[in-house]
# Entry
Amino acid sequence: MNKTTNQITLTLAASAALLAGLAGGARSQESPAVSAALTIDVGKRGPAIPASFYGLMTEEINHSYDGGLYAELIQNRTFQDPAPRGRQTSPQDLPIHWSLVGDGKASPDRQDPVNSALPVSLRLDLSGGMAGVANDGFWGIPVRPNTTYTVRFYAKGGGGFAGPVTASLVLDDGSVSVAQADTPPVTGSWRKYTVTLATGHDAPTTAQAHFVLSATGTGSVTFSMVSLFPPTYQNVPDGLRPDLMELMAGLHPAFIRLPGGNYVEGSTFDTRFNWKQMIGPADQRPGHMGCWGYRSSDGFGLPQYLLWCKQLGAEPVLALFAGYVLNGSHVNAGSPEMAQYTDEALQEIEYVTGPADSGWGRKRAADGFPDPIPLHYVEIGNEDWFDRSGSYDGRFTEMAQAIRKRYPRLKIIATAPVKSFRPDLYDDHYYRSARQMLTQADEYDKPAGKPAPLTFAGGGWSGRQPGGIKTFVGEWATQEGRPTPDLNAALSDATFLMRLERNGDAVSLESYAPLLVNVSPADPDKGYPRAWQWGTNLIGYDALHSFGSPSYYAQAMFGQNKADIVLPTALQAAPPPAAPAPAPHGGIGVGSYHTQVQYKDITVTAPDGHTLLTADLTKDTHDWQSKGGQWSLQDQAIEPSAPEAESWAVTGDPNWNDCTIHLKARKLGGPEGFLVLFHVQDGSHYRWWNVGGWGNTLARCEATHDGTRDPYGHSHPFTVETGRWYDLRLEVTGSRVRGFVDGQLVTDATEGPATAPAPVFASATYAKAGHIVIVKVVNVGPGPVDMAIHLRGARRVNPSGTAIVLTGDPTAQNTIDQPTNVAPNQEAVTDASASFHRTFPPHSLTLLRLQLH
# Structure
């Protein structure tokens, strides 16, 4: 080990210690009060707030449906789910999430299936004693006292077996069966059995349980389509999980954007959202591989989406597959395939809206919805700005023309700029850091302009649309807090919602994303990955419990206090002091995101040409510090031992500033590309060059400060090919970075000075019912804000009002164990008038309800 390597080990150890020290604690202490003045002109009227404004966005990610909203408790109920990545299996291995109980053996059976949608069965061979198969559910089977469960499965006997099958709920240690029931004797042909399991008053409340199907005797019994349902919302058979529905009902959504999201596209044409295979009886739905690393049972199909809307009193915003899939493949306008997808879209609309005596309306009625479902919006595709072929304009136009001809009243949403057919709305997406939300989210306050460069997760026009076309902000979130947002994110989200709300003349609908996340961690003993894929999500849950995040409560405060119009406001507050930014400096590193990559021939040189680092990748990784997963050496290259969601290996001196990083990189598999880290100080302060990010479509730089990540500079279209070695060179000069791939300049980005956010944000709206002025104030600073509030033009104000306040430590989150750690409190206002003062606490969102007379 040379002298340089010794230095690296010492400095990176210090970095690791600093990272541990920064893992918790509040960001700042309370500061002196800020003075502010808010004038609300109640005599004037601003834009109307559309009745459709607040909604939900959904797709199958983070086990949102299977293992989430769809109340089914059996994971892999049709025995077709693939094993976790990296696990070696054989065709005769027990299906994932199933295990053998007692004496006997079990294996998949592909002979004589129930039907073509259920090609795999599970055969249990009996040897005289009791034998069975157990399912461990979605990170556990939830058991509660005094609860009735419905069990359904297909079974047939073989080898002379004709006894009953016992269904039971058993605690994980096998000591207690908390409920069980027997079927009638099985026969030699397929038959569907239904039994109920009822737990007693002394049953525990736990998710440490499993479901067992067992039998005693000789011969065999074969199972197919095994289902276990607890009580559901409003007691609808095969329905939805009650606690999640109650949380969503608290948001008062006007619409649900469905079915996605990437889920509508799929990774391939065969795995797109094929709605025709997601209607009818559940045992007629074949299921398909989703685009987030796990299989969808499709028990949550189009009828369940409609049930969801009906039970929440929301309308669907129906996203239609439009001939583009996530691997980059697409069809062209005028092709037979595009004609097929257009016909399928028209038929899907008929399924939703057609009378019960129409062809597809009749199928909807058979699925439990005799009356047509109100539908006002359809969206053609999803995030088609990622299609670099330019085919979207033609695909959109072909489908939009057909829809407009048959359904002239439907409003049509485009997901990327088009020129051949005028859409009614464009769909904009914004995933940002808290800093970006507070300092840059003013797109809709500005006049309409030209198409903007592709942003973090959005494209086309960013802000008001030319020609008065409306906007659907179909996905947005502050990306801070994992797997659910912290209070700081919630406050940033609130300021963004306030900006959208006050531009209701331009923004017709909005929906946060993702909505749902199963927060269950990985189970190393069983080899199961964690349940979630996306970093920041609104509502969290496990098998037994659920909770709303601070951002959930912020949005519930908005949804439960809707108004009709925006009132003009003027806010005056002292700007925050500008803090000088230190010169950028730090170590270097390599990383991956859900992708298997290799890096080799890594060197770092100083501006004068002398070598700072030549990485020795032949012995061990002692000179590298990893985060998010272990890294190892293979063929004189460094690679992640397993492609985690986000994993890096870093080395170097945290005092390095200007340098050139040179390396070779190869992708072996996965959805993304390469990460080259520089200016690494610790796990919350670093920068990287992302080559092949955003679904392997772009190259761009991102800077992370205090754990929040901001992209900077322009993005450049770039796709990494699998199996090919690339030569990467990154020239770092102060805040400017130039990135070269195989000698060609791909990225030239300069990070601007950080903009300090305003200390306080405010807006006001008016609800005609009750003559209520709703004042929203967000204090993002560490000290209180003493605000003078003036209601200009108010003749008389009721002194009694209501304040709803969400506040706390900005890094605080809600969890399974502390579901309301951050939640709103209601206070009485007793001194309201046309001019009064109120102090707003640090790190808070406050809604004031004031009544005019």
Notes: Residues 157 and 221 are 4 Å apart (CA to CA). The domain at 3-23+580-750 is CATH 2.60.120 (Jelly Rolls).
